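Technical note accompanying the year-one report. For the benefit of new consortium partners, we illustrate the data format agreed upon in the data management plan: each record pairs a sequence with a C-alpha cell string. No post-processing was applied to the example shown here.
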Amino acid sequence: MLLGVMSVSAQTDVVESRNNRFIERIKWQGYPAELHQVTTKDGYVLSLHRIPHGRDGSPGPRPVVFVMHGLMSASSHFVYMDPEYAIAYNLADAGYDVWMGNQRGNRYSRQHISLNPDDSKEKLEFFDYSWEDVGTIDLPAMIDYALAFTGQEKLHYIGHSQGGTVFLVLSSMNPEYSNKKIASAHLLAGVGYMENFPSARLRRLSDFGSIIHTWGTRLGIVEISSDALRRSEKQTIEQNGVVDYCAGDEEYKAFCETIGVPYLMGDRLTLPVMPEMGGCSLKQLAHFGQNIKDGLFRRWDYGPLTNLRVYRSLTPPSFDLSKITVNVTMHYSLSDSVLHEIDVLAMAAVMSNTKVRKIEKDTFKHEDYIFAKDSKELVNDYIIEALNQF
C-alpha cells in the first residue's frame, strides 16, 4: 500500500514539473501564464493553462476563449510556434482570456485521485476511456471551471481535430449545456462524420482497431506515447529529474539552462521538442478505428450483447448532430488526410447554425492549423475577426 502511494506521488511530481516548466516557457515568451487544475467527477486531475492577456495588455475581465487540442496532442501545441504565429498568443494579443485544456491521461493531465497510470493493474482502469469521455466529462469540467473562475457566463470554443470531435460529442449529447455555456465555436478540421475518410492507409488499419484494442488490453498495452519520449524521461529523471528537451538559438539556450532543460541546437525558437506527443489511450484510437471502418460517427462499440445492455440496441447509437444549435464555423482544407470535404458539408447540412469555410490554400494539411506559419493568415486572423463581431 505504501509503495502504491509513493508511486502516485512520484507520478504527481513528474506531471507537476512538466506543468511548471510549460508555464515558465510561456512567461519567458513575455506572456502572463497560470496553471489551473480541476478534478472530474470520475477522479481525473486535468490541467488547464491560461494566458489571461497579451504581452501589452493589462489585467482585467476579457472575453474567454477555450482552446482544445487534438488526438495525441496537448495544450503546448497552441504555443509551439513563435508568438507571431501561435494561435494562443495571437488570441491573447487580440484581447482575449485564453484557456488551453488538456484531456485526461495526456502528459499534463496524467493524474488521478486514486489510480496510478504506471501501475500494471491500475493503468487498465486509468486508461479505459475514449474521446466520448473527454467530450462528456472532461470538456464540461474544464469549461465550467474557466467560466466560474473568470465570472463569465459564456465562452468561445476552438477545437483542433479531436478537439472538434469532443465538441460535437458534448453538443449533440447535451445541447442545452452547450447553448448555455458556448457563444460560438470554431472547429479546425473537427473530425465527425467518416463516411468518406480520405486516408486509405488508415482505413485499412481501422479494420483491426477493435482487435488491437482487445489484445493490447490483455497484454497491458493501454497507453499510446512515444517510445523515444519514454526513454528520454527515464534517462533524464534518473539523472536530474528533467524530462523535456528544447531547441532554439543561443539566446534560447540560456533559458533552457535556467530551467535545467538539456539544450539541443535547432532551427526553431520553440520548446519543448519531445513533449509534442501528448499521449492518449489505446481505446481512443480504437474508437476512431471503429468509426472509420463503419463510415459512421457513433458511440463505442462493445459488441452486440454488451451494446444491448448499455444502449438497448445491438449497435451503438450515432451522435445526432442535428441537435447542435451553437454558432459553429467548420474550417476544412482539401489536403486534409483525415477529414473529407464531403463529410464536412454533410455535418454542416444537419447543424442548423453552422457554416463551412474552406481554407484558401489547396495544400493546407491537417497539422498545418497548428504548425504552419501561414495558419495565422489563413486561420487565426479570420477567427479573431469573427470573435470580435461578438
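Partners are asked to follow this layout when depositing records. The longest strand covers residues 45-51.
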